[in-house]
Amino acid sequence: MKKRNKIKILGQWVTIEHCKLPESDDEEVDTILGDCDVSTRTIRIDKDLEGVAYTRILRHEMFHMKVGLSGIGELLDLKLEEALAVLAEVD
Length: 91
Ligand SMILES: [Zn+2]
Fold this sequence. Notes:
This protein is α+β, with helices and mostly antiparallel strands.
């Protein structure tokens, strides 16, 4: 998948930044490969990811953005949203 710097999700432009993400402060998470900030409409993805790994993380973060922008996130607990985001990584 070609790396794009902007993508439209639910009619809104979302910025995609390819960068080095900060270390995780969550003991259960080793490395953060992507994150999603709905308030600033920004997805960040580890700049070293390529190919299938890149596509999976992009789809994962796009799912979080879609859930956040739509307001459906208000209805989901975080564990369920995370499980669904993992499901959204693959066809
Ligand atoms: Zn997630």
